Amino acid sequence: MHDLIALTPLGARDPRRDHHLGHSLIEVTDVALASVAARLGREADAAALVATVTGAEAPAPARATASAFWMGPDQWMVEAPFATHEDLARQITAQANGAASVTEQTDAWCRFDLKGDRLADIFERLCNADLRRFTGGKAVRTAIEHLGCFLICRSPTHVSVIGPRSSAGSLHHALLTAMKSAL
Amino acid sequence: MTQKNRLQGGLIDRSRSYTFRFDGKTMTGHAGDTLASALLANGVRLMGRSFKYHRPRGPLTAGSEEPNAIVELREGARQEPNTRATTAELFDGLVARSQNRWPSLAFDALSVNDRLSSFFAAGFYYKTFMWPAAFWEKLYEPMIRRAAGLGSLSLQDDPDSYDKGFLHCDLLITGAGPAGLAAALTAGEAGLRVILADEDYVMGGRLNAETFSLGDMAGHDWAAQTVARLRSLPNVRVMPRTTVLGAFDHGIYGAVERVADHLAVPEAGKPRQILWRIYTKRSLLTAGALERPIAFENNDRPGIMLASALRAYANRWAATPAQRVAIFTNNDDGHRTAADLHAKGVKVAAVIDTRPGQPVSTDYEVLQGEIIDTAGRLGLTRITVRLAKGGTREIECGALGVSGGWNPNVSLTCHQRGRPVWEEGIAAFVPGGTLPDGMTVAGAAQGLFSTHAALTSGAEAAAQIATDLGHAATKPDLPQAEDAPVQITPFWHVTDAKRAWVDQQNDVTAKDVKLAHQENFVSVEHLKRYTTLGMATDQGKTSNMAGLAIMAEIAGKTIPEVGTTMFRPPYTPTAMGVLAGRSRGTDFRPVRKTPSHTWAEEQGAVFVEVGNWLRAQWFPRKGETTWRESVDREVLQTRKSVGICDVTTLGKIDVQGTDAAAFLNRIYCNGFAKLAVGRTRYGLMLREDGIAMDDGTAARLAEDHFVVTTTTANAVSVYRHMEFVRQCLFPDMDVQLISTTEAWAQFSVAGPNARKLLQKVVDPEFDLSNEGFPFMACGEITICGGLRARLFRISFSGELAYEIAVPTRYGDALIRRLMREGQEFDVVAYGTEALGVMRIEKGHAAGNELNGTTTALNLGMGRMVSQAKDSIGAVLSRREGLNEPVALKLVGFKPVDPTHKVPAGSHLMTKGAPVDAAHDQGYVTSACYSPNLGHHIAIGYLKSGDQRLGEIVRLVSPLTGFDHDVEVVSAHFVDPEGERLRA
Amino acid sequence: MIINHPLLGPRDAAEFVYKGDAALIHRPDGMAPDALEKFIDYGYLRDNPAGEHRELWFHEQGDRSWLVVTRNTLTHEITSVELARDVARREGRSK
Amino acid sequence: MRYSGWKVIKEALTGHRGWGPAWRDATPKPAYDYIIIGGGGHGLATAYYLAKQFKQANIAVLEKGWIGGGNVGRNTTIIRSNYLLDGNEPFYEFSLKLWEGLEQELNYNAMVSQRGILNLIHSDAQRDAFTRRGNAMILNGADAELLSTKQILARYPFLNVNDARFPIKGGLAQHRGGTVRHDAVAWGYARGADQHGVDIIQNCEVTGFRIENGTVKGVETSRGFIGAKKVAACVAGSSSRLMEKAGMRLPIESHVLQAFVSEGLKPVLPGVITFGAGHFYCSQSDKGGLVFGGDIDGYNSYAQRGNLPVIEDVAEGGMAIFPMLGRARLLRMWGGIMDMSMDGSPIIDRTHIDGLYFNGGWCYGGFKATPASGFAYAHLLATDRPHDTATAYRFDRFAKGRMIDEKGMGNQPNLH
Lengths: 183, 983, 95, 416
Prior knowledge:
The structure holds 4 protein chains of 4 kinds. Chain A is 25% helix and 37% strand. Chain A is α+β, with helices and mostly antiparallel strands. Chain A folds into 2 domains: 17-29 and 108-182, Probable tRNA modification gtpase trme, domain 1 (Gyrase A, domain 2, 2-Layer Sandwich); 31-106, 2-Layer Sandwich (Alpha-Beta Plaits). The radius of gyration of chain A is 17 Å and the shape is globular. The termini of chain A are far apart.
C-alpha cells in the first residue's frame, strides 16, 4: 500500500465542517465516483451494469438512486465508499464486458452536503433548481455562482452539491455565504 | 421644526417618532412616513431643482413615478443619488440632501438658466457651440458636463452586499391593490403557487390612500386583513418592497426586493437588496393606474401636485403641503380629492373644473375655467383662473391638486414590444399588442377604474388562470365597493401658455413640443429624442401622454395616429449592485486552484491568473531580488538537472469507444488511426474554417481508449466542439467523451535527471529505460508502493521529460515526495514563466501563436494536414488566401546587439523599407530572455520567414519606442535535433 | 429564455451555449470533388430568417446534450426541442 | 437654413418662429438615379456624400419607419479606430478623421467628444496582443498609447485595485477616441443630404426588387414601385431579410446587442473605458447618464430586446472594476439588432445583380463607422470602384479565405 497522504478538495487533511442555525455544511471526501457511459447499441447492457454494481435500477434522467445518478443520455455516475472502492472505475470496467466506457471521476469533483429544514431558502439564493418541489432521488446539474454543479437531493433535508474540485474553495464560500444570508 | 402640516388620522404610527435631517435641518416624522410625507408634514414643499432650468420643485406625486422630489439619500459610501423622496421609507436618523443645486436649494446659482431659457429651447445645442471649432471640447462641453447630471456618487466602494435568487411559481401577481389582492386570494385558495409582489412597503395600493369603505370596513383595513389571510396560506408568497422590474422571455420576470433600504444599515451578513429571477407559468399585472397632470403656465411650482397625490398624503400620511389648497380637474376624481381634504380640515379655496355644469358644493366653491398662471418663487402662493363665464380670478393657496385623468400603468405590458392601444372612453392607452408570455392584466391597469371593477376583474382573471392550470377555483366573496363610472373630458394643456411644463424633470414645455413639430421631429421617437421628453428618471410616466396629445393637436391628428407610449425595463431605476449580486471583488469569478497550490504557497510562489486558474508563475528564493533571477535559475537548473511543474491545468478529455481512433481522425488534421497502444502523438486541431483551433497530445491507453490533452485556455471549447462532432456530425460513431481535467494531478518532470528522479517513486516493476519507455510512450503505472498513476513521455521543454498523473487528492503528496527525492539532483520547481521560456527556446507554439487567425501552414505544419482523409477544417484550409506564396511563417528572432530585447507585439520591417503598415512583414508573438543563450530571443510570424533565415530585419514598436535590428533564425533555439528529449 | 429539454424539462437558456443554424449538422463530404464549393456555403452562408429558426444549443451546464431548438427569431417563441443526435440520425448522418 | 450664433440669438429673442424643418418629408418620385434603402446613419451619410462629395443627383433615401430609428439611435455612442488588422484600421481611422471635422462639415453639432478610450489589460498575453495592436494603429497613422496602472489610476482613481479578481496591469489608450451624440448624427446627415437635394422618404418600406435579366430596375415599396438605375441596400440588422427578396443568402446572422443607461449623475467618468477580463464598457454622456454595454445575447434574434443573463453579466463586469457603481441605478435598457458577419468585419460591395449594391455586416462596430461607411459606399456607388480604405470589405473574401477576423473567432458570428 502506498504511503501518500491525501488532501481534501479544500486543501486540508480533514474534511471541512460548518454549522449555522441548525444547518450543516459538510465536505464529503469518502465517496469514490466513476462515470459509466453506454457503448453504442449497448445502452440496455450498460443500464444493467449500473444496476448490478449499485444494486438498484439505473436512474432515469434527472434522478438519483442511493449510489448512482444520471449524468446525461445513457450515462450515469456511480458512487461507492472510497475505502473499499478507491479503484472504482477499474472495478466496474472488469464487470462491463464492453458494454460501457467507464471513467474514473472520484477526484474530478468536490462534494458538500447540506442538511437542515430550510434548504430551499438557501438554494433559492444559489441556483434555479426548484428545491421546494424536490423529493428524495432528484438529481440536476445546474450553475451555482458560475460553477457547473450536480445537486443530488437525497431527502428534502439533505442535499449534496457536487462541483468542480479545483473550485472547491469558491463553491464552499458561496454555499456558506448563502446559508448565512438566507437563514 | 414642528410638523405644522400634519393632519389627523392616517396610517402612520404616531407612537414611533423618527428624527431625520434634510439639507442639515433636523425634523421629526413617524413610522410609516416617506421622506416626502414627513417633509410636507414639516412644512417643506421645496425638495429639488429641475434638470435644465434648475426650477424650484416639490413632489408631483406620492409614488415611484415621481419626477421632481429626488434627493441624495444617506451619507458617505452609502450615499444614494436620485432617490425619490416619495418612496424613500423614513427611518430614524435618515439623512438626505437636495441635489443639482449650488450653493443651496433656496438659492441656486444655475437658476440663471431659467431666465435665459429662451436660449435653451429644445435641441438648441445641436445648432450652436460650434464656433470656433476647437471650443466645443475645450470650453462648451466641460461647462455643459459640469452643469448636467443630477445627484452624485460617493466614488467609494459600495459597502453593502447584494444577493441574487430564483423563485418558481404558477402565478406572479404584480401590484397588491384591490385587483391584486382579490386575485391573490382567489388563486391562493385555489391552491396555485402564488407570488404577490408590490413595490410599496404597505400592501393595498390606492386602498390605503382612499376614504371609501369596502363592505363594512375601511378599504385599508380590508387590505390589511386580506394580506394577513394570504400570509397564512403556505402556497402564497407575499413580497412587499418588491419591484417587478422587467418581463423577459418565456415567463421569466426580474424583481428587486429591498430587504434593508428602510434600515440605517443592513443586518450583518444580510444583503441590502435581492434580485429575484421569477420563473412563472402565468402572470397577472394589477399595477393600477397613474394620474396625469395638465400643462399650464408655471404648473411646476412646489405645492402643485397631482390631486391623487394630495389626497394620498392627506389620507394615508396625514400630511398636506399647505392648509389652503385648490383643485384643477377635468374629471370627477378631482372632486373626490376636494371632498377628502375638506373632511380632513384642510381649507379648499376652490375646485376649478374644465367641464361645464359641475355640481356646486356646499363645502367649497366650484368654478368652471382654466388656470392660466401661478405665483410663488419657491412655493405656490397664488393661482390665476380664467373663468369660463369670462374674466379672471386670483386665488390664494399654498397647494394645488391637478387631475388630468388616469393612465393605466401599462409599463410591464410593453417589455416585449407590446404596443398599448387607445381607449376613447377613458381617454387613455390600455394594454395592447403582444403581451409578454402568459400575462393577463386586470383592474385599473386594464382601464377598469372603479374599486368594484378592480376587485371583480382581479378575481375573475385569477379564477380563469387557475382553471387554465387545472385548478378548481371558486370566486371569493368580495366586499361591496364604489363603482363610479369614469367621467372625463380630455383636457391636456391650457392653450397659449408661455411656459407650460410637460416633462417636469427634463424641463420640456408645450412650446418645445411645438418647436419639435415645426422642425419636423414629428414621429413620437423623434419628439422624445429631440426634446428629451420622457427620457428622465421617471421614463415619462407622468409626461408622455401630454406630449403625445399636444403633438397630435398640432399635427391635426388623433393621438393613436401620432403614436403610443412605450416603456422599457426596468420599471423603476435599479441599483447596479443588485444586478451584479455577489459577483464582485475577488468573487467576480470562481478561482481554480491546482493540486500543488497549498504547497506552492508554502514555497512563497508568485501566482498568476490563467483564465480562472491560479498558477505558480515562479518560485522566488531567498536573495533573489528580481523575477528574472528566479526564472533564469528555474530554467537553467531544469535543463542542467531536473525541474518539476504542475501542468494539471491542461485540459484532459477521456475518449473511449470502438470508434475512438476514427473519431480522433476526424478531430485532428493529422492521422491517428495507426497510433499504437502505449504511444502518444502530437495532434493539431483545426476549426472547420481551416484555422488552427488547438493543439495537444493524444495518448492511446488501449485499442478503444485515448486520453486527449488540450491547452489550458481551450479545454472547455474543445470539449464542446468534440461533443458537437460526436452528437451532430457522426452520431453513429461508438465513442464516449468525458472531461478528466480535474480528476488527475499532472506534473511535468523535465531535465537530464528526470528519469533518475522518477525511478525513485515509480514502482520497480515498471521499466523507465529509454528502450522500455521511449520518447512518446505512455502507460498506466503505480508509484510509491501501489498508487495508480499515468505516465506520458512527452516534452514541452525539449528536455528528457515525463508527465506523471495521479488522482488529484495525492497531487500535493506527490510533489512533496518528488521534491524530497529530488534533493540529490538539486531539483527545482518551475512556474509558468520558466515553462514559457523553455517552450520559446524550443519554438513550440502556444496561445500567443494560436491566436485564431493562424493556419497549420503559418505554424510550419502545413504538411501535417492530411489530404488522405476528411478531417475537420481540412477542406477550407485549402483556400487560396490561406495558401499565399508569401504566407506568414513561424520563425525565431535574436537581437543583433545581444543587449537588446526582442519585445512581443513588435512589428517586423524589411531593412531599408519604409516603416508603415503597407510594408509590415509580420510580428513577434512570444519573447523572453534565454538564460541558456545569454540573450533575449523571440518567435513570431514573418512573411516567407522560412526562406529568410539569416536575414537581418528591423523590429519596431513605436508604441513603446523600440526600434532595433534582429536576425531571423530557426525557432528551435535549443537542441534543434531533439536529441535531449530522446535521451 | 427557457428551453424545454426533451429529457430534463424546462431549463433556463443560461445553462446552454448557442452555436447557430441547425443546418450545421449537414456537413458536406470532405472527399467529394466539389467539396471546397460546398464547404464555403456550409461554413459561411446562412438563411438567418426573421421567423422560425432551427438552431443548435449545447447544454453545457447540464447534461451535455446538443439540442435542435426551433425558435421564432421575432418573438423568441420556442415550438420544438429535440436531441440533436436524434435529428442528425433522422436526417441521414451516421459515421 | 444655416445655423449660426446670430441665428440662435435672433430666434431666441423672437420666439423661435423662424426655425424651419431640419429636413423635408419628400414624396417619392417615379424614378431616381440612386435609391438608398435605409434611413439610418449609414444610409443618410451615403446619400449626403453621394450628393455633396461625388456630385451625384436624383437620389432618394427610403426608410420604412422614421429616420435614425435603427442602430444609430440605439447604440453606446463610441467612436474609435483601435483596430489591429490592415483590412480594418485604415478604414476606421479614415472614419475617425471624418468625425473630427463633422460639425463644421454638417454645420450641425453632433457633440463629437474625443475624450479618449481605454482598454484595460489584465494579463501578459493581453499586453502582448494590445502592444501588437497599438503598433498596428500607429503604423496606420492612428494614435495609441500604452498606459501603466499608475497612469490609469490618475484618471480613474476609483478603479478596483483592492480586491480585484483580475488585477489591472495597464491599458491601451486611444486619446482621439470618444463619443458622439448618436441621434444627432442621423439628423445632421439628413439635414445635410436634404440641403443637397436628396429626397428623404419616411414610412416607405421596400417590399421587393424588380430585377430583369440580372439587372435591377427599381424597388417595390409600401408606397408603390420606384424605379432606379442603382439600388443601394443599407439596412444593417435587417440585411438578410432585405437581400432575401433579391434571392441572396448572406454571410450574416442577426443578433441582439443590449445597451444600458443609468440615471443622470454628476461627472465621474472622464472617458470611455473597457474591461479586459469581462464584458463591460462604459462612458458618461454629456447629460450625465452612464452609458454602458457588454456582450451580445448570443442567439439569432430580430426582437429589439434582450434577456436578464446578459444584463447581469454586464453589471457584474461593471461592479468588478468600479465597485463604487453599486448605488448608481440603471435607468433604461434597450436592444439593437446587429448584422453579425462571419468574420466580424463588414461588407461594402457590389452584388452579383447589376445595379444592386450592399452595405452591411457591421456587427457592433457600425456607429463609429458611419461617416467612412457613407463615404466609401458613396464612392462605390458613384465610381463602381471600392474606396481605398474599404477594398477588403468584399463578399468573396470568405470563398477566397481572406477573412478579416480581428478576434480570431472564426466563422461563428456570435463570438465576434
